[in-house]
Structures are given as structure tokens and as C-alpha cells.
Amino acid sequence: MTTLDDLFGLRGRVAVVTGATGRLGRVMAEALAGAGATTYLVGRDQGRLEELAGKLGGQCRPARCDVTVDADVAALGARLREEHGRVDVLVHNAHVGRGGSLRTSRTADYLEAADLALGAFQRLLDATRDLLEAAAADGSPSIVNVASMYGVVSPKPHLYDRPEAGNPPYYGAVKAGLVQLTRYAAVELGPAGIRVNCVTPGPFPGEGGDPALLARLAQQTPVGRVGDPAEIATTVLYLASPRSSYTTGANVIVDGGWTIW
Known about the structure:
This is SDR family oxidoreductase. This protein has helices at residues 4-8, 25-34, 46-56, 70-83, 107-135, 169-189, 211-218, 230-240, and strands at 14-18, 38-43, 60-64, 89-92, 142-146, 195-201, 251-254.
């Protein structure tokens, strides 16, 4: 009889999650570690990383790294090379959330967002490509990019109390670019046995948000509610697992139906 471990088990595998201490990153890391992967928690705050690793258990390793800094990412790659010699799962989830509009956005905001979404992908790939290729010898290594519903559709200004409280234009623009970069990378890396997919979350607001805003967001989905971060973990786990070995270049949308109407 096939077990869940047969389907989604990652024992003996190595996973890396950037933006690991964020509300989505932590559940992704928990799912991968729970499936047996040695999971490196990547972020800029060592204290928060150590705290999260303590909560998630012995499979997790805190790894302070700013993915916009070349030297930090190169050091992360060197550490992975020394400690394991392989990377089976790379989840690119790092982002900085803030509000804004065309009126308040500046050129520097676009450049910063692009570096965090697109430039960081290139840095991570440069630092781990040989490790992903090594994992392909006995597995199906997987890169999972985390985009956004606002890379697919525009925010609706009327949902917010003021324009600057909404999602800024550069965020959705670079997330749309990340979806396309996923397709491009899937084509180029496929012959090496490396899969590249994307997850597009819908409304997953943090705790303690404005109840009126949460209600308005919920009304935009056919299911009538916002998402629980745990609901994205299974998608990431599927894309990370060897049982998704024939899935590459896909953009899996987890949005309660927000983008279908």
C-alpha cells in the first residue's frame, strides 16, 4: 500500500526556504521539514531564524542571508556545498510588503522590488545550480518561486480606505516577471533534470488586520473568505516532492478563486 511518505516524503533531501520567517514562509518550511527534509531557514534576522528553528524542530537550520547581497548568497551556497553537496528544493519566497500607488512610487522602488524578486532568483541559482544538478542524479530537484495574485490581476482600489494602503504597482509588476522567469528557467534547466514551478497566492493577510478590510477581501473570492497560510503548504510540498516530477513551468494559483472573475 502506498503511504503518504511514499508520495510526499523528503527524507534525505535538502530544502532551502527564503523569507522563512514570514507568514507564508514559515508554513512552507514547516511542511518541508515535516516531510523529512533538512530545511534551511533563510532570512535577514538571525534571532527570528533561530526562534523559528527552535519551534519547528531538529530538521531546521537557521541560515542568515540577505538574498540581495551577492556575498551572502555565495556564502549560503558554500555552506550547503560543504554540509550536504546537494539541494533538492529551493523555495524563493523572500519579499517586502508595503502599500503604495503610482502617485507615491519612485523609480528606486521598482529597482528594489525587481532585485528582490528577479535578481535574487539569479543569485540563488548561481549559488546552487551545481547542487541542484547533483540532486538530479538520484532525485527530481525542484525550484518553487512564490509570486502573487497581483502579478495576474490588478488590485482593486475601492477595497482600500486610501490609495496608499493598497498594493503598490511595482510589486505586481515584478511578481508577473517572476512567473515568466519561472517558465524561462524551466525550459533552460529541464535538460539538467531541474524543475521550476511557481505558486501564486491569493489573499493571505496577516493576523490582526482591519476586520472591515478582511471582509471586503473575502467578498472578492467565490469561497467567500481569505486564505489560511497552512492552505498553501500542501501546494509547495507537492511541487517539492518527487511525485510531481512531470510538473515544470507551471503556475499554480491558490487564491480561493479571486482571479477567475
